[in-house]
Amino acid sequence: MSRWQQLRVVGLWEFRRFFRIRDQILALAMAIVAGVVTAGITKFVEKSGQPIRIAVIHEERMPGITDIDPKTILGEKTKITLEKHPPESEPELRTAIEKRELDGIAKIESDSKIQLVVFKRPIWDDQLKLLLTVARTQSKMKQNQIGAIVASSMLAPPEIDLAFIEEDGKSGRPQLLVASLLSGACFFAVFLSLAFLLVGITSEKQIRVTEQVVSAISPQTWIDGKVLGLTGVALATVFTYALAGAIFLIGLAISGTNLFAKLSFALSPGFLILNLVIAALGLFFWNFFIAAYAATINDPNTSSRSSLMFLFMLPMGIAFMGFEQPDSLAMRILTLVPGTSITVLPMRLVLGTVEIWEVMLSILLLIGATLALRRLAGKIFAMGILMVGKEPSMKEIWQTLRKV
Question: Do 170 and 256 contact (CB within 8 A), yes or no?
Answer without folding.
Answer: no
